[in-house]
Amino acid sequence: MLQFAIIFRILGVMAAFFGLAMAVPWAYGALTGDPSATGLGIASLCGLGLALILLATTPNKTPEISHREGFVIVTLTWLLAATLGALPYLFCGLTRSPTDAFFEAMSGFTTTGSTIFSGLDAMPHAILLWRAITQWLGGMGMIVLSIAILPLLGVGGMQLFKAETPGPVADKLSPRVRDTAARLWGIYTFLTLAETAILIALHLSPFDAVCHSLATLATGGFSTHDASVGFYQSAAVDWVVTLFMLAGGINFVLHYRILAGRWRTLQGDSELKFFALLFSGACLLTVVALRVAGHTWGSAARFGIFQVASVITTSGFATADYALWPFVTQGVLLTVMFTGAMAGSTCGGIKSVRILLLFKQGFQQLRHLVHPHAVTQVRLSGRTVDPEIVHEIWGFFFLYLLVLVIASLALTSLGIDLITATTAVITAMGNVGPGLGMVGPSHTFAALPGAAKWILSLCMLLGRLELYTVLVLFLPEFWRR
Q: Is there a contact between 285 and 332 (Cβ–Cβ < 8 Å)?
């Protein structure tokens, strides 16, 4: 039976964390005389008040949690984050619609980058900072941070780590979850600070540099300007953001190995090679297509590589309206929207390791037709892959497509055209951001019906938590003793 007391106690801890997180933009707003400071302060107090209620009404026990409770806690934490994260948008008067506010917050915490807001250039800076913070916290996963906190309550966090860790092949930095979380956040923070320093050196304001760095490493895509990164009209800024988007799309275990001087271990990483090949191929096709369409080689490389990096890492930044590009480039971008970058990164999508293993499984079956008596195994980075993992990937792939089709049909039933509906769902499940049609790079999601925003919010959650974590809660047997 589920231990609801410990579930609510953990949610209380997370509510306190989100309340304190909202205090950061509140403090910034109070110091700078920002008009949104009052709304942020009230929202912060709401989070802290909820935390006080939950912590005061639940016993301070120290039991181990089961895997079922782990799934419930992970899902409810994300829903709690989006609910509390929506309050600043309501209390600051940016929208009167709870639907729009929840959509924006869910987009932030899932690092999707879809937005209902326009006029970002005139938006209060404290709110823009809050948007960036939601993405930064969501980038590595609030649950990873909570794993470092939960042991203080005496709660085992391994089930949470299992539920949240992206990708089918776990490769941990440390056998201790708490140490792993600390190291991941250390690398994450270091890269964020490094990008901030470089952007300031390129003459971005400290505020813009901080906000874009928070969103870049999270592969989120929230900007402080309607024109996104294209606002700066700077090739140097474009290339720097491209580099750090790719850094966010690489397995953070590899970052740790690089910082530890273990460069040689990268040579045998099959997923890294596949991701590099996929990215390079997509860039080549896009750059050539743009050159044929009339761009110079320099312009085609700058804008094409940036956009491929933005989409394959599911960042969602833009320097141009790719909806106006040749159809072949749009096809390339839609393809890499599905794949995403590497497992263990901050990106969304199916993950390149899953695509790689599906390819390997397909070729294995072809070889089996030629040599029916041969014993063949799928291998990844020199190691044999458990057949159960391959079966799980096929199941994931089927469920991913099934949810995509059902959600797309649901949106079209609301009167949304097929291109807009399909790409909106693809970008929501892949945590990418802008799509095509009514939700292209030069548009927002504000014009979509309220029901569509709730459907897309669910798709964002499913994509961020990789389907199983959420869908398992809908099985009747999950709730039986």
A: yes
Query: Which residue in 113, 55, 46 sits closest to 86, CA to CA?
Result: 46
How many Cα atoms within 13 Å fall on the side-chain side of residue 71?
A: 16
- For residue 161, tell me if it sits in a domain: no
> Which pTM does this prediction carry?
0.91
Q: What is the pLDDT of residues 144-203, one digit of tens each?
A: 644 443 333 333 343 344 555 545 544 554 556 667 777 888 889 999 999 999 999 999
Angle 4-32/142-149 helices, nearest 10 degrees? 110
Q: How many domains does the chain have?
A: 1
- Determine the structural domain holding residue 398 and report its residue range: 389-479
219, two tokens:
């592969």
Q: Is residue 271 part of a domain?
A: no
Least confident interval from 285-289, 312-316, 392-396, 452-456: 392-396
Q: Angle formed by the axes of helices 37-56 and 67-91, to 10°?
A: 150
Q: What does the DSSP assignment read for 109-157?
A: HTT----S---GGGS-HHHHHHHHHHHHHHHH-HHHHHHHHGGGGT---
Q: Which 3 state secondary structure label does DSSP give 420?
A: helix
Residue 432 maps to a domain: yes
Q: What is the pLDDT of residues 48-92, one digit of tens each?
A: 999 999 999 988 876 677 778 888 988 999 999 999 999 999 999
* DSSP structural state of residue 383: E
Helix, strand, or coil (residue 416): coil
Q: How far apart are CA 281 and CA 179, in angstroms?
A: 37
Is 319 domain-assigned? no
Nearest residue to 211 via CA among 229, 234, 227: 229
Distance CA 262, CA 265 (A): 6
